[in-house]
User: Fold these one by one.
Assistant:
Number 1:
Amino acid sequence: ERNSGAFNYGAYHTLDNLYRAIDAIMLDYKSIVSKQLIGHSYEGRPLYVIKFSTGANRPGIWIDAGIHSREWVTQATALWTAHKLAAEYGKDAFVTSLLNNYDVFLLPVTNPDGYAFTHTTNRMWRKTRSIRSGSRCVGVDPNRNWNAGFGGPGASSDPCSDSYFGPKAESEVEVKAVADFIRGHSNIKGFISIHSYSQLLMFPYGYKCTKPADFEELNDVGNAAAMALRSLYGTQYKVGTICSTIYQASGGSIDWTYDVGIKYSFAFELRDTGRYGFLLPANQILPTAQETWLGLKKILEHIRDNPY
Amino acid sequence: EKTFIGEQVLRIKASNGDQIVQLQDLQSLAHLQLDFWTNPSNPEIPVDVRVPFESLQSVKIYLESNKIDYSIMIEDLQEVINAEKQEMISSERK
């Protein structure tokens, strides 16, 4: 019996349990799944990327979750997605064709220190756990720490703020590890970051309120993805640039990836729209993951069918 | 472990740009220790804010005196967190 299939994807788990589940998926599907250590967090926890690959020298697609630690449904959704990708290869035509043409890199817990802290000490923690001498406040908002409009509107210079952008771009080792990975790979064609909550599907830009060069295409793909997502449970998503859907926010990951040439850069804000917020009940994890998969699939299909 | 006893999450609906500015002013009052789950930026987007028990009265008075609409999104945050913990424990047992 495969161990990864017995794991309860419909519950919230500690970091140790999530990491054990990653190992189980890897062991169960070792011909296509491996684990790549891309760095360590500020407190020394490993940053594990799950790599899905069926051949050498393929272009890559990146998916991450949990950069904001309190957004628990995102880490859970990422893990469910990892199992889905692994288990459906060779069974589902879409997953098979995707993995026959692309490597997928999935980082389910981008901010493991923060995630561990939400379990032990403060459920509402969002930032990293880095400490700086001379500051009485801990952590940096890792989604204001990317080198895209760094330090601009929608980010705070106050180290005590939840949207503190940090002393310099990529000051956070977690952010630098991902950025180094993207730079080092040099052939990533899609970058999807998973957040919660608000039910939004966004694309660049956030650090400025102008449309990206590929606005029409990204908007069309985004709307198709939102429609597919909605088809399962009727969950409605709003689609648009970060600036138009929420507010101007600088130093975000998908702005950086778009500016370094990854055209298909998207960010999801998963359920809900404000009944529970970050405290989404566990019984909504599986429906959220299942509907998100349909949206993700539309984006991934478009990437597969539109090489650049 | 930090507890959130008596804390509420308010859903605030600004009706115009002036009220957004008033909410941004509220956001800058560090002593209230507010945790904005969504930021005040646009009257079309509701603002969700976690309010410590000690600040609840001041925040509600501020909103009411400025005629800013709000409702209570989460009545008792600790209760929801406790339920989440309980759920984790029982699923772990299973």
Note: The first strand of chain A starts at residue 33 and ends at 40.
Number 2:
Amino acid sequence: RARSTSTFNYDTYHTLEEIYDFMDLLVAENPQLVSKLQIGNSYEGRPIYVLKFSTGGSNRPAIWIDTGIHSREWITQASGVWFAKKITEDYGQDAAFTAILDNMDIFLEIVTNPDGFAYTHSKNRLWRKTRSLTSGSSCVGVDANRNWDAGFGMSGASSSPCSETYHGKSANSEVEVKSVVDFVNDHGNIKAFLSIHSYSQLLLYPYGYKTESPSDKDELDQVAKSAVAALSSLYGTEYKYGSIITTIYQASGGSIDWTYNQGIKYSFTFELRDTGRYGFLLPASQIIPTAQETWLALLTIMEHTLNNPY
Amino acid sequence: KEDFVGHQVLRISVADEAQVQTVTELEDLEHLQLDFWRGPARPGFPIDVRVPFSSIQAVKVFLEAHGIRYRIMIEDVQSLLDEEQEQMLASQS
């Protein structure tokens, strides 16, 4: 086990236990800046943790970042670990980022689907869904990104428990989803919701369940364009951007459609590297460059959120 | 632990809506145990699918019979997984 977040190895993949240990190290090293919240327990009873980065105030406007809702997308949890360390390193050092954290809080959920993630290490590396049991079916799990109450059950998800995009019996049926929904509703002042997936190199905004454009489409498109340009400036990684339904396909019950409908204007989904060489099996050597370039895009969106209060 | 020896990931290029529909029908054939990494969407949008060893021949014959172009994106999934595990163990040690 790493003895500090400075000796922690960021360019390798880690188990659930190692990531949870990392969180405790980070909190212990930065007690004034970082705290660990438990927002619930997974279906199999694992704690669901969110790291809170705050420089004071009460219920400040906040930015939410989650990784790992689809457990096999290992590059996302690994990037989330790197983001957490980056935040503690840059606060007080980088002027633009310091301004963000002096005025807003950041909530980072690194392992959004702990049961699925543990299962990718123990039994099936390519497991995507939760590990909940569905009565009447021998198939396991729900696609947690089809389980949100936004176009739930519409075209763009499957009603078959055996499908990788099974939406579940009802909206928020998955405790991993309900925990986030309750947290967002209780907090009530989240201004940006950024959910990180892989792969395909895309930056997406609502909607996925309907073709209607979001009322803030022009602004979201502009922010996405700037964010993608910032990302690409580091290593030349090319991203496409646009709404989910026009850029990929119809997907119902997705998280950012729900958050946007709750009034969280800056709702985006990232699809990280790559475009189809390794897919979900992205080599660990690409963890740090992927996290570094993604961070530039996150900064762009966070700065825009700070500078455009609503 | 699930074994993926011989599993391949195919990248399928669909030229028109009819081909998208044809590949979508494959998705419903549960006995093939296909795992779509990138699902069928629209012409020009690549489809990536992991195919178990036992289904590879049937899937390739099916695609060729329908004139649907594909290439092998990952030759053997298990060998990549083995590399990943070795890398993790090496870094832990």
Note: Chain A is about 35% helix and 15% strand.
